[in-house]
Every structure is written in C-alpha cells, then in structure tokens.
Amino acid sequence: MNITDKPAYTIITSEKKTFSSFLENFDNEYVNLTGKNLIVVISEEFNASNKNILLFLKYAEEHQNNGTSFVVVSKDVTIDDFPETFNIVPTLVEAEDVIEMENIQRDLGF
Could you read off the pLDDT of 14-48 as tens digits, one per residue? Predict the structure, then answer.
C-alpha cells in the first residue's frame, strides 16, 4: 500500500494485486490514518465489485463522525448504487474537490 501525504489530504493506493490484500493492508494501517482526510484509489486492476467497495463504508462513516473526509476513487461504478453519504467519484481531481467542499462546509458549520 502506498501512502502519500498532501497538505489537505492523504492518498492511499495499492501495490497489491488483489482487492482483499489491499483491504487487509488498509485495515491494518487505518489506526495511523484516523484524523486525516483520506482519498482511497481503487485500482482498475481489481475489477472491484460494489460489494467490495462498500467494505469501505464503515471507514467513511467513522470519518464523517470525526469531522474528516473519506473519498473513494473508482472509475467503473454507478454512483447511484451507493448510499448518498458515501463519497465515491471517478477521478482524483473530483476527490480533491469533494474534500475541499467538505472542508468549507465544516468551516461554515454545516
């Protein structure tokens, strides 16, 4: 798993070949990632199902409860198949935009 810290967020990408190994590594490393805005990039090589991607929902909910953002980047999904509160976008640029918008909303007290 690759972790890249940026000023406003941290990007998580995989160097593993399977979704399950990526998720296992993420789960093990997660204690070091709490309190940060996270962008998790799902590799196109995984052919991850909606069911697999939804495994990140518990982390997303925890981040929302703690006042931080959690965004999943996955190109081949239908966003309508996921809960409205789950941030999933097709590109890294859109993920950055989501984090920026959520930071503004938190600053304004929404």
Answer: 887 889 999 999 999 999 999 999 999 998 888 88
Closest CA to 53 of 90, 28, 6: 90
Please list the helix, strand and coil fractions of the chain in percent, rounded to the nearest 5, in that order. 50, 15, 35
| 17 Cβ contact list (under 8 Å, min separation 6) | 45
**What is this structure's pTM?**
0.93
Q: 1-28 burial, b if ≥16 CB within 10 A, otherwise e?
A: beeeeeeebebbbbebeebeebbeebee
What amino acid occupies position 7?
A: P
Rounded Cα distance between 16 and 46, Å, is 9
In angstroms, rounded to a whole number, what is the distance separating the alpha carbons of residues 38 and 59? 10
How much is the average pLDDT of 1-19? Answer: 92
d(CA 41, CA 60): 14
